[in-house]
Amino acid sequence: MADSVLDRDLLVRLRSGSDAKRSDVEVGVALLRLAHDELEAFGTDGSERTSEEEIRLVLRTSRRVLDRVGLSLDLPFSDFRTFKTFWVANDGYGSWQARRDMLNGLFEPVHLELTRREDGEITSTLARPVTSHPGTGWSRVDDEVNELRRHFQVARSEQDYRNVGNDCVAVLERLSEAAFDADRHLPDGEEIPPVAKTKLRFDMIINSSAGGSDNAEIRKVARAVVELAQAVKHRSTPSRRDAGIAADSVIQLVNILRRLTEA
């Protein structure tokens, strides 16, 4: 990779989980193009702009990211050496064009599907907070939100959309667990409500954090989000629009409560 350095630590993190700042589809587009370009450079003029170890890491990370969006990268090689063995065994010896054609046949269908999904994300991606923070600081909440985003990206059926509703409820319960502080939010004489009583816990957080009449509208929003998430979870024939609205609302509520509890 001329004049650039491969960020190995980033690749290791991407194998372990999604990037909070970028969707797996966006990451997959970039990784797959990098892998294709590096293999083509090696196959046409012998350039090794990345090392054997680095190209193996790029391909392993690409497969993992694609797995998360429901796609597979089925390559009969894992690095430059095994790519050369493959092209020699498949009439690619002495022909740069034959090697390009091999790579195009393997990569192009996945490139096209990723492009289609990336175009879809432009019009149907879930809400992002206006804050510049990469996450809420509540690790379990952030993990659940990332799973919600991932599942929504690949959802295609009514069952998938219903499962997005399940994810919405899971986010709310993790939010209830993380945001509620009994010492700060529990009214005198009250018992601590269970984590699953999200509506009650959110009422208590809002009442103690947003004083006076200012909290009425926020309480209405929180209650409506809880009810919407439950409705999509139990709806027999939810649509992508239903699931997306519920997911957007839950993500926004996460950020509303983060702002309140930081005040």
How would you portray this structure in words?
This protein has two domains: 8-124, no CATH class; 139-262. The chain contains eleven helices and no strands. 70% of the residues lie in helices and 0% in strands. Helix 7 runs parallel beside helix 11 and helix 10 packs antiparallel against helix 11 (240-262). With 263 residues, the chain is an all-alpha fold. The protein starts with 7 loop residues before the first helix and ends with a helix.
Tags for this model:
single chain, 263 residues, mainly alpha, 2 domains, 11 helices, 70% helix, elongated
Quick gist of this model?
With 263 residues, the chain is mainly alpha-helical.
Please count the beta strands (DSSP E, at least 2 residues each): 0
* Residue share in helix: 55-70%
The end-to-end distance, rounded to whole angstroms, is 46 Å
Beta percentage is under 5%
Gross morphology is: elongated
CA gyration radius, whole angstroms: 23 Å
Weakly predicted, low-confidence segments:
none
How does the major sheet shape up? none
- What is the chain-wise order of helices and strands? HHHHHHHHHHH
- Which structural class do the helices and strands define? mainly alpha
Can you count the helices? 11
Number of domains: 2
| Average pLDDT, all residues | 88
List strands and helices in order, with pairings:
Elements: H1 8-16, H2 24-45, H3 52-68, H4 80-89, H5 96-124, H6 139-154, H7 158-179, H8 182-185, H9 198-209, H10 215-234, H11 240-262
